[in-house]
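Researcher: Here's my situation. A collaborator sent me these components and asked whether they could plausibly form a single complex. I don't have experimental data yet, so a predicted model of the whole assembly would be a useful starting point for our discussion.
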Amino acid sequence: MLSQGMASRGDIIEGRAREALIVLGCPEVPVQQALALYAADRLNDDGYSLSIAGNPAVLNLLRISDPKRMYIRELVELERCIDELSKEVRQADLILAFIHNDAGISFASTIRFLFPGRLVVLVFGREAEARAEELEISCELIMDPAVHNPGKLRRKLDEVMGWQKQ
Amino acid sequence: MGCVQNLGYEVILEYTSFKESREYIEKHYSDIYYVDPGFLLFEKRMIGVPPIALAIEGEDTVILPYTKPCFGTYLLRVQDEEGAAYVRANARRKP
C-alpha cells in the first residue's frame, strides 16, 4: 500500500510524479462532495500528486470535511487553476471534471480546450441527461441523474478508472 | 486595462446559459468578435464553449460573457477604451 501523497517508482513520468486534477462545480448537489473525496482517496492510492480546483465555497466544504487532510492535498481556486492551465504552468496527466449545470458545461469545455490529456467528466444531478447532450467535447463521460446517492456514479467511475471494488 | 471588478460593469443578462449569451450577442450587436477559452481580457480568462462571442458597442465598450460556477453566465457591459482596442486587435471576426 502506498503512503498517502507519495508516488511509487512506477508512478514517475520523466522525473516527476503523475499529476491528477479534480475540477469541481457548484457544491449544491450532494453527490459531488462524496465522489470528490472518494476519487481523491483512490487517486492518492494510485500515486498521483493530487490537486482539487473549485470556487471558494466548494474548497471550504472540503477543508471542513477533511481537517486532517486524509484525502485532500493541494486546493486551488478555480479561476487561478484556469489561468495556470492557460499559461501552461500547471501540468496534469489526468483531469476529473464534475458537471451538473450550464456553467459546468462552460468550464469543462474550457478545460478540454486548454488540456489535451485524459479528461473524465462526471455529469450528475436531476438534469444530467440534458447536460450530457450539451457537452460536445472529447472525453470519457460518466452520467447518472444522481442527487443524493452516489452509488451508481461511483461504480461507473470505478469501471472507467479501472479501480477494484473495495 | 484593469480588472473587470475595478473598471465597473453593467449587467445585461444574468443567470443565463452560454448558448443564450452567444445568441444574444449575435442578435443584438453588429461589431462581433470571437475568442477561444482562456483568452485574457480585463485580467480574467474567458470561460465558455468555443467560440466565445464578444461585441464592441460604440468606440469604447466591450460586451462579454462572464461565467460563475453557481450562477451561470452573465453578459456584462464594460466601458474601457483600452479593452475595446485589445479585443479589436486580438480577437477574430469569424467563429
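Model: Some features of this prediction you could bring to your collaborator: Chain A has a mean pLDDT of 92. The radius of gyration of chain A is 15 Å.
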